Each structure stands twice: as structure tokens, then as C-alpha cells.
Amino acid sequence: MIRRSINNLLNSRHHCNSSILFSSSSSSLKQPIMAENKPKIIIVGAGMAGLTAARTLPSALFDVSVLEAGNRIGGRICTSEFAGARIETGATWIHGIDGSPIHALAERIGALVPDPDLPWELMDGYPHDDISAVREGGRDVDDSVLHRVSTLYKTLKSRAAESPVRRCSMGSYLRSGLQAHLDSLGDGADAELEKSVFAIFEHIERTYTSADELDDLDVLNETEYKEFPGEHVTIPRGYSRLVEWLAAELPAGSVRLGRKVSRIDWSPAGAPVNVHVEDGEVLVADHVIVTVSLGVLKAGGLEFCPALPSEKAGAIGRLGFGVMDKVHVEVDEPLPRVLLAFGRGGSAESVPRWMGRTAGILPIYTGARVVHVWLAGKEAVEMEGLAEEEVVSGVQATIDAFGGGGGRPVRVVGMRRSGWAKDPLFMGSYSYLAVGSSGEDFDAVAEPLPGRFCDSSERPLQILFAGEATQRPYFSTTHGAYLSGIREAERLLQFYRRP
Ligand SMILES: Cc1cc2nc3c(=O)[nH]c(=O)nc-3n(C[C@H](O)[C@H](O)[C@H](O)COP(=O)(O)OP(=O)(O)OC[C@H]3O[C@@H](n4cnc5c(N)ncnc54)[C@H](O)[C@@H]3O)c2cc1C
């Protein structure tokens, strides 16, 4: 067990004859660090943020351990194989390629090279205007209606992003926009159809943001959240390829799986940081980087002693963290990619409630026999609680209610689903700006301890926080998680660079 203060470490160079180590990224360190006195860093969580932080801290300078509660790395990045295809149960897209560090990494390690042996979630044609929509019973939605409503939705969204409207929920903002649109329609228009088609875009919004209801989502989410410019693309070799690469570059043994951290003892007065692992082991560290999800922090799934300062706890409580789940099904015949316009008064009796706000049936590439449906909020939670057969029959009923494969019967023959809400290591999918929260709350979650919320010159930076929900304005994404890992590693490098 290594137990020493940072001051001891820095002083130790005067009476220690070990060699002084520098790595390429550390050559500018003003304060050399001795080989056997390397600061001990514990990173909690081996997702994108944790592995990136570990990768950024030179092993020549820091003794880094990554403690991961689960039995795999990657966290909310989880690529697997199903029905002869590579599927993503977690992150799917690189949201914008121009300047995205995730895109640069994927390109650099060859993850964007198509795999001739295994098809992947290419998602070609989605999301695009040329997608068609179908009503219950299998009737197509007229293209002009789809186009008109899609344009309305985009206009409302870009208006909200460009000239922030007075604070309100996204739900009420969209409803008033829709009402104004309906009022402008002539007498002959089918208002119910316009509403049903509008609801498709609301369902997509719920899956993109993971908000249970759009009434929970602050309209300011539109201005706070940023993506990189350019196309949104998927990763042919799988998203997990990225985290595998990050982990492979770490010294052997530095990532420890099955190590659930239950409590972190820190001390504004300057005692060392104790990291309690569920099996009773206690590790001592100079610094701990916590990367667990906002859902875990909200639920108190990781205890801090003393408790987190009220400013930080308040921000954690205010921000939104919702659920988005994916159900992948294997069908015996390819299905077209269609959006589903459910009737406003409720869907067909055969369609279960939890499928009634699904935006579409989406083959993972054109002609694929693997199709996915996305569920958000309480519908996702309900699906997670069902038996496999119930999920299969619910998806089957929905395919049937919307006319199957253009009149042909199409059978669901296999299913794989995510369960992000019920998994105690995540407790949801990603963060969003909830009504009552603000962009500053993301900054507050990122604030290290001791730091702005409780100063201590004795032993600063005992606990640092990384993860998607700490990275404004890139929250909820893999690039947000990645950048947050670099940010906290750089914070430590900067700390040891001090004159
Ligand atoms: C269904 C879904 C779809 C998504 N789609 C996209 C997308 O298309 N594009 C995109 O950019 N992003 C997407 N995301 C979001 C993206 O996956 C996340 O933002 C990102 O992966 C989060 O990384 P992280 O390191 O912050 O957290 P995590 O990946 O959650 O890593 C935290 C790690 O901590 C571990 N842990 C938890 N508790 C403990 C404990 N007590 N002790 C030790 N370890 C613990 C967890 O097991 C986990 O491995 C999606 C997410 C989901 C769930």
C-alpha cells in the first residue's frame, strides 16, 4: 500500500537517488518526479473517460490503477455480435466528424475501415429526410405531410438553438409551435395526422436526449449541447475497438475488473484518500478520478465521506439523467426503414403501451435482417422489466400493426436488448439539461475536491471528476467522456508542473 502525501513526494527528490523519469508528454514538467515516488492515481471506472484519463497520464510519472466494477471495459460503449452482425448496445454514432477527437482516434487505429466479414450498424439513410413513414394498418404517410412536419420540427429546434426562447420545457415549447402550425392549416387538413407525424420527431427527441418526457427537458438544452460539425457516422469495426485500443496501451495489470468501489474517504483537512472496494480492500491514493455515471452519483451508488459539498450535490440532483434502450431483433425477411406514425388517441390494441412511443423500425443497414427499435424513458424501463418472450411478441405486434414488410408477414426470430436503467453500474443512459438545471451544473459536477467548493491548500485535488456529465457542452456523448478524461489528466499534469 502506498501512503504518502504530495508534499512528501516532491520533497523526496532531495534524499532519493532513484532515476528521474520523463516521458515525451512530460518533458516540460518543471517538477521532476522520482520513479519510486510516483503519485498514486486511482481511476474509478473503465469507460471512455476513465481509460482516456489513464492513457493520458504517463506511466513513467504516475502509478495509475483503474478499478472497474463490471467484468468488461467500455462502460456505455458495448459492441457485440448478434445474428451475424456487429451491433452496438450503447453508443452508436460519432456525432460530427470535423474536429472530433473520437473520429480522429477511430481513423488513426483503423476502426473506420469497413469489415468485409461482418456487417455493422451502418445506419445508411438515417436520419435523413428521404425516410418514409407509415401509419398503423400499413398506410403510407404522404411524403408532403412528412416533409412539412419535419421542416416545422427542424425550424422550431433551430429557432430554440439560435435565439434562446424564455426558459420553459422543450415539451411546452414544441406544443405551442405545433399549435401555431395547426392553426395555420386550412380546413381540409388532417390535423390528427399532422400531430401523429409530429409525435415521431418528439419520440426521436426523447431517444436523443434520453428525457423521459420532453416536459422534463429544458429548451436551453438546445443551446447548451454542441456537436462537432460534419457527418454523423458509425464505426465499422465497432465502438469497442476504441476503448480496447486505449486499454491495450496501458501497463499490464493497471485495469482491474470486478473491483466495485463502494466508498471514498477524503478530507478537507489533508488526510490521504482511502478508496474502499466492495470486498473490503482499502486502497490509498494521492488522487482519485471518479468517472461513474451521473445516474450512479444521483442514486448514491458511490459513497463519499465526508459527503459531497452541497453545491456539487445540488448540481447532480438538478441535471437530468434518463434512459434510452435498444432492442435489436432478428427478422426472417428484411424490413424497410420506416418511421411509425402512431394514432394520437393511442395505438392499436395489439401494440403494447411500451412500444407505443417508438420512433421507427430501423434495419441496421439497408436490407439487413437485424432491426432495432429505440425506447426512451418509462417505456424503456418497462421493457427492461419484461420477460424476453414478451419483448419479442411486443415488437412482433408492432411490426404486424404497421403492415409488416409491405404486406408480407415478417417474423421476429431472435432478440437482444439493453438494460441500462436497471444496471446498478449505470442507472440510465446519458445526461441532459433538465428543467431547473443549467449549463453551470455540468461545471459543478466537474469541480474537483477540495477545490472551489471547499478549499484546502494542504492537499488539493483529492477527488477529480470526469465522465460525459462533466463535459459542457459535449455532455451525453463519447467525445464528451473522452475530453473529460484528458481534462482531468491534464489537471494533474498541470498540478505537478507547478514551480
Ligand atoms: C444506449 C446508448 C446509446 C448511446 N449513443 C451514443 C452515440 O450514438 N454517440 C455518442 O457519442 N454517445 C452515445 N451514448 C453515450 C456514451 O456512450 C456515453 O456518453 C459515454 O460512453 C460515457 O462514458 P463515461 O466514461 O463517461 O461513463 P461510463 O461509460 O458509464 O463509464 C463508467 C464506468 O464506471 C463503472 N462503474 C460504475 N460504478 C462503479 C463503481 N462503484 N466502482 C467501479 N466502477 C464503477 C461502470 O461499470 C463503467 O464502466 C450512448 C449511450 C447509451 C447508453
From TrEMBL:
It is found in: Cytoplasm. InterPro entries: Amino_oxidase, FAD/NAD-bd_sf, Flavin_monoamine_oxidase. Its cofactor is FAD. GO terms for molecular function: polyamine oxidase activity. The keyword Metal-binding does not apply. Signal peptide: none annotated. GO terms for cellular component: cytoplasm. Gene3D superfamilies: 3.90.660.10, FAD/NAD(P)-binding domain. The keyword Flavoprotein applies. Residues 48-493 form the Amine oxidase domain. Keywords: Cytoplasm, FAD, Flavoprotein, Oxidoreductase, Transit peptide. PANTHER family: FLAVIN MONOAMINE OXIDASE, PEROXISOMAL N(1)-ACETYL-SPERMINE_SPERMIDINE OXIDASE. Belongs to the flavin monoamine oxidase family. This is Polyamine oxidase 5. It comes from Iris pallida (Sweet iris).
